[in-house]
């Protein structure tokens, strides 16, 4: 780009119409191409204050300089041309200012999903071209630039005046059209009207139980895992968010979603019927909602493990801490972080219901499916957090070397976000898997060619083959597998299309949050059931469409981790909630020890690994582990896994969802009792019995 500007300057100074024309045309084409294919470079130039408007202005000034040196047109025509060009830039900057005003006016204090907003009279956003100066300036200045270049080449003012006139009309039209969004018909409802609508909706909907979540990009899974449970236990559920960008990251659900960025507007929940909030994660903005005295708060976390983060001292700010089983209760007591034992409630893990129990001995002739699901490096970047760094490649190489194994590799979505070396190790693991699959495909191809050669040799014999020989030489099973695979892939494509139709949130380019809010109105009745049925069909179709001998790298939200659990005969993971959740199946599992501790100390520090095979960074334990999976008679940890399942996840009777529902009702009843006391106190009732403060300390049970 710098070379083209230099060449354009040379062409204007020599003067050379050909050099000027070529350099200017290539520069404009490069600008438009980079905007389309390399927006990162355009963004970097903008941060250096060399954005599209500056580049286009420099380009046009050099063309005007070239006209002054090359053209013999009269002074009046030159002044008209330059004046029109200045008017184009004036219109551009007016449009830019209008775009800022319109964008700010369309930024609402509350953003919603799954709520009927017809009463607000929301309108679609302006076209992206009107709001994005980066797209607008180079494109709409093409007629002016081209016209002036033709004037420099042909020495005729008409081309420059015509081109500048066209650009001026286009830019003026943009200003006029964008200004209509400030007229009453398209004007946004404004803060006061939006807040009044929000309060009215709260009064009519009367929410009772909600999820409160605040987090950055990539953390939405922490809230998504509780959506189905919330919908099952609450009569009028609600999802409360704080970041605008999180609204579209929440998974498909029929539960109303509200985003309230400002604390002052969040306080409107105090005047609602909301009784309690579930908290899947600690966040800086959590302290803001805790100021609302009418709402009870339960910390559910987004998974339990033996990591220190699973007994964070911040948990003591909640009314209750809900855990899966006795192990987490003891974890808080031993950590001594200020959480009263009486505030710890065991509710199990309702999300684990889809996990199928262990069936025992694998089916004869079927590959052993091993799920390797390491966690990420964590914010502390401790080498013991993830096995990807120190052990991942050894584990994968050992598994791929065993012909009985089919590997499912599902890394944590945040792998490499803190430690670049973890991301590089993850990439090397994926390369190993790709190479293993390529080798399997090559062997299969050689086998097919050998089979064809054998059939050709038999065909040259004097005795013609019988019908039975023909079937044996070209097995129907082989053709059937190919046909079934094609059929399975077609079914997967159909299920994917149906699931995307029900869940995808696709908006036109340029749609802003107000337009998305307008489009995502109240869901149609039965949509949640249709999504669940479509998801079940997709899971079945996905696994049916995968080659039975191929290793898979699984990323993204589909397939979910629990679906992977149901496919696996063995899990290899780290100290994380994945290992604890996998115990719901009571299948064999292994945990990688990269902490530097001895096995005895590692088991003592992490109760979750009590029934696991411990794998060292060298992965020498894997062959014996695979033998125990293939032959349950060699599995010495089966009984221990059953006992540990109850210790970590709680009893199976009553079911976890039942216990979770009872805990929700109990805490909601406490919120009702508090409201009643406060109402009576406000009315002057002196006979209200106030709750007696409990003594501090821990009470360890069991």
Structural features, described:
Helix 2 crosses helix 3, helix 2 packs antiparallel against helix 7 and helix 19 runs antiparallel to helix 21 (527-545). The protein has 27 helices and 14 strands. It is α/β, with parallel strands linked by helices and 702 residues long. The strands form two sheets. Strands 1-4-3-2-5-6-7-8 form an eight-stranded mixed beta sheet. The longest helix is centred in the middle third of the chain and has 40 residues, at 420-459. The relative contact order is 0.09.
Features:
702 residues; alpha/beta; eight-stranded mixed beta sheet; six-stranded parallel beta sheet; 27 helices; 14 strands
């Amino acid at each position: 780009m710098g070379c083209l500007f230099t060449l354009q300057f040379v062409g204007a100074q020599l003067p050379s119409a050909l050099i000027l024309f070529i350099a200017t045309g290539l520069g404009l084409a490069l600008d438009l191409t980079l905007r389309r294919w390399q927006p990162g470079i355009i963004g970097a130039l903008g941060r250096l204050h060399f954005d599209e408007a500056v580049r286009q202005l420099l380009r046009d000034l050099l063309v005007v300089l070239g006209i002054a040196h090359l053209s013999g047109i009269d002074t009046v025509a030159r002044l008209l041309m330059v004046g029109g060009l200045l008017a184009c830039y004036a219109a551009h900057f007016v449009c830019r200012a209008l775009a800022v005003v319109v964008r700010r006016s369309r930024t609402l204090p509350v953003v919603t999903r799954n709520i009927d907003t017809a009463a607000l009279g929301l309108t679609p956003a302006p076209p992206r071209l009107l709001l994005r100066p980066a797209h607008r300036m180079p494109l709409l200045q093409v007629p002016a630039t081209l016209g002036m270049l033709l004037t420099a080449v042909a020495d005729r003012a008409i081309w420059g005046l015509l081109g500048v006139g066209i650009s001026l009309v286009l830019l003026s039209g943009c200003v006029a059209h964008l200004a209509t969004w400030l007229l009453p018909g398209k004007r946004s409802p404004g803060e006061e009207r939006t807040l009044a609508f929000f309060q009215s909706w709260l009064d009519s909907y009367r929410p009772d139980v909600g999820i409160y979540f605040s987090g950055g990009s990539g953390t939405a899974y922490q809230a998504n895992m509780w959506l189905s449970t919330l919908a099952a236990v609450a009569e009028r559920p609600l999802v409360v968010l704080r970041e605008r960008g999180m609204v579209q990251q929440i998974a498909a659900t029929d539960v109303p979603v509200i985003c309230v960025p400002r604390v002052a507007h969040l306080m409107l929940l105090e005047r609602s019927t909301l009784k309690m909030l579930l908290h899947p994660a600690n966040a800086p903005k959590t302290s803001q909602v805790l100021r609302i005295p009418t709402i009870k708060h339960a910390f559910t976390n987004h998974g339990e493990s033996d990591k220190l983060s699973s007994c964070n001292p911040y948990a003591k700010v909640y009314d209750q801490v809900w855990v899966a089983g006795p192990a987490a209760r003891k974890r808080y007591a031993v950590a001594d972080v200020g959480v009263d034992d009486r505030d710890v409630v065991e509710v199990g893990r309702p999300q684990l219901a889809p996990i199928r129990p262990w069936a025992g001995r694998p089916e004869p002739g079927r590959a052993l499916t091993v799920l390797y699901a390491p966690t990420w490096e964590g914010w502390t970047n401790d080498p013991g957090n993830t096995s990807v760094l120190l052990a991942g490649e050894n584990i994968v190489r050992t598994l791929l070397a065993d012909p009985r194994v089919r590997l499912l590799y599902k890394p944590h979505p945040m792998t490499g976000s803190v430690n670049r070396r973890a991301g590089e190790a993850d990439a090397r693991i994926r390369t190993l898997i790709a190479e293993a699959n390529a080798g399997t495909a090559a062997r299969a191809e050689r086998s097919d060619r050998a089979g064809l050669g054998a059939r050709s040799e038999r065909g040259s014999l004097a005795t013609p083959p019988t019908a039975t020989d023909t079937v044996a030489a070209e097995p129907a099973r082989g053709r059937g597998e190919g046909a079934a695979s094609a059929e399975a892939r077609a079914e997967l494509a159909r299920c994917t299309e149906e699931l995307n139709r029900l869940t995808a949130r696709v908006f036109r380019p340029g749609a802003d949050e107000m337009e998305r809010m307008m489009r995502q109105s109240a869901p149609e009745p039965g949509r949640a059931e249709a999504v669940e049925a479509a998801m079940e069909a997709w899971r079945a179709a996905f696994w049916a469409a995968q080659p039975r001998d191929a290793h898979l790298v699984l990323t993204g939200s589909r397939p979910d981790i629990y679906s992977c659990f149901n496919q696996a005969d063995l899990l290899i993971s780290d100290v994380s909630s994945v290992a604890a959740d996998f115990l719901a199946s009571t299948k064999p599992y292994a945990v990688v020890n990269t902490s530097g501790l001895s096995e005895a100390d590692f088991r003592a520090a992490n109760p979750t690994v009590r029934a696991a095979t411990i794998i060292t960074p060298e992965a020498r334990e894997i062959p014996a582990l695979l033998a125990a999976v293939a032959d349950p008679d060699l599995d010495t940890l089966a009984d221990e896994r059953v006992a540990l399942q109850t210790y970590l996840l709680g009893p199976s009777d009553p079911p976890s969802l039942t216990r979770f529902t009872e805990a929700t009702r109990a805490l909601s009843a406490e919120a009702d009792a508090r409201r009643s006391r406060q109402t009576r106190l406000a009315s002057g009732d002196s006979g209200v019995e106030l709750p007696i403060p409990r003594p501090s300390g821990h009470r360890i049970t069991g």
